[in-house]
Design a protein that fits this description.
alpha/beta, 5-stranded parallel β-sheet, 18 helices, 10 strands, 51% helix, globular
């Protein structure tokens, strides 16, 4: 029977004010601090604090046999440091329990790899430094923003010294194979790829509270039996941390489900492993080739969630076009402002998709419409360009 690998993405973006044309060049305050605090407080009380307490207790009660992995974005860590140090302490306590592995990612939860190798490396290094500073750990496994992946990203992660990388188990790339094995990209020699089991992960992440789902209500015992019936070496269950308590509220039974999972998995004869433990335990027995960029977002599993329309494409191209000039000025505040504009959520909120995917985008957006998200972003970007010009002039005069 396979092992079970559990991983959660933990992220909050910095949302923009309704930044109109008349603020450009006049107002350097771009972020909606009140909204950021309000959402952080809500998610902290509904998800982060109770889930951290629950998982820490389960790790202790099961003598470390229950284990999981987290990837915490730099933007969230900054918000916690500024507004909720108590929540950051709860994450530190959870990691100190010994049952949690932290993964590396881009500091700003960005699409940097798609546009700039240099900026991608800078953001990954920043994230590694932040994790060492806050948690005293240095990850061995990498997960790119929203599981964005292809052969080149796997090769890049290998050159940066990582032992493993996480990706979506896209059916087209698997070509009939099971996602429950460790794979190797054809462009790599050493790094191993762990693939998300899409159906089982989405059972927990999306379908769990759907009363129209034929398997509703889902119990831990039933789910553990499904895991035990799987083939392969390891079943990778990857999802958003906020699914527990926030996207799926407490009254859905989500906490009771997770409370029961360690015992149910143990009774089914299975064991938990973290990503780095899976990398150590199992060889990469098969090849997983992904020429195209894939992700875990939307039905297409590609980059259309962030780059599917003209607004998104223009916005992301313009912000990355500033890289050389921004970095040349060597102004930390300006660089940080520019890097925060790369956070993938900004472009996600500009999506104009319909159907189920469109509903998900609408659920997450803080703005009245995708067009408002685009206008606020482009106005802030115009202000950033003015501030860049001023910094360049000051540098020239110095």
């Amino acid at each position: 029977m396979p092992d079970v690998c559990l991983y959660f993405q933990v992220h909050q973006p910095n949302r923009l004010l309704p930044y109109d044309f008349f603020r450009i060049g006049e107002n350097a305050v771009h972020e909606d601090e009140a909204m950021n605090i309000e959402i952080l407080n809500k998610v902290s009380e509904k998800c982060y604090l109770p889930t951290n307490r629950m998982f820490q207790r389960l790790i202790e009660e099961n003598d470390g046999r229950f284990r999981l992995a987290l990837s915490i974005s730099g933007t969230l860590i900054e918000q916690l440091e500024r507004y909720r140090p108590d929540v950051l302490q709860s994450f530190q306590d959870l990691v100190a329990s010994g049952g949690v592995e932290l993964l590396a990612e881009t500091y700003y939860h960005s699409l940097a790899f798609v546009h700039s190798n240099k900026e991608f490396e800078r953001q990954v290094d920043l994230h590694l430094e932040k994790l060492e500073e806050v948690f005293s750990v240095r990850p061995r496994v990498f997960r790119n923003t929203e599981l964005i992946y292809n052969d080149a990203i796997a090769a890049k992660a290998e050159t940066m010294g990582f032992d493993g990388i996480i990706a979506e188990g896209v059916e087209e790339n698997l070509d009939g194979q099971s996602p429950n094995f460790l794979y190797r990209a054809p462009t790599t020699a050493r790094i191993k790829t762990l693939l998300r089991n899409i159906p089982l992960s989405d059972d927990l992440g999306f379908r769990f509270s759907d009363k129209a789902w034929p398997e509703y209500p889902l119990t831990a015992e039933k789910f553990a039996a499904w895991l035990a019936d799987c083939d392969g070496d390891v079943v990778n269950l990857f999802m958003d941390y906020e699914n527990i308590g926030e996207h799926q509220w407490e009254d859905t039974g989500i906490f009771e489900f997770w409370e029961s999972m360690p015992e149910a998995v143990s009774e089914a004869g299975l064991q938990w492993v973290t990503p780095s433990e899976a990398v150590e335990l199992y060889r990469a027995s098969r090849e997983y080739s992904s020429h195209m960029l894939t992700s875990w977002a939307d039905a297409e599993r590609d980059l259309s969630a962030w780059m599917g329309n003209v607004m998104q494409q223009e916005a992301i191209a313009k912000v990355h076009r500033l890289e050389q000039e921004i970095l040349a000025v060597n102004d930390p505040a300006l660089t940080d402002m520019w890097a925060k504009m790369q956070t993938s959520d900004h472009f996600y909120w500009m999506s104009t998709k319909g159907g189920t995917d469109g509903s998900v985008h609408t659920y997450f957006t803080p703005y009245p419409s995708p067009y408002d998200a685009y206008i606020y972003f482009m106005n802030v970007l115009a202000d950033l360009q003015i501030r860049l010009r001023r910094a360049q002039e000051q540098t020239a005069l110095a």
